Amino acid sequence: MLRIALIAFILAVVTGIAGFTGIAAGFAFVAKIAFFLFLALLVVSLVGHAMRGDPV
User: Is residue 29, in this structure, part of any structural domain at all?
Assistant: First the structure.
């Protein structure tokens, strides 16, 4: 999931530099959604491990 966010971020930067602002905005939106989804899943995983008493 983090890989998807990173790829979308890189594509947004490259297309932004090339001048395709509409495409760059789309890639930036995808990167933002993927990143926050990754963070939410990370928090859920950490809470789940803490509740079970497993070491991280």
Answer: yes
pTM above 0.70, yes or no: no
Specify the 3-state DSSP secondary structure of 19: coil
Instruction: Please report whether residue 56 resides in a domain.
Output: no
Question: Which structure tokens are listed for 20?
Answer: 């395709």
What's at 30, amino acid-wise? V
List pLDDT tens digits, range 28-38: 888 888 889 88
Cα–Cα dist 10/21, whole Å? 14
28: containing domain: 2-51
Domain count, the chain: 1
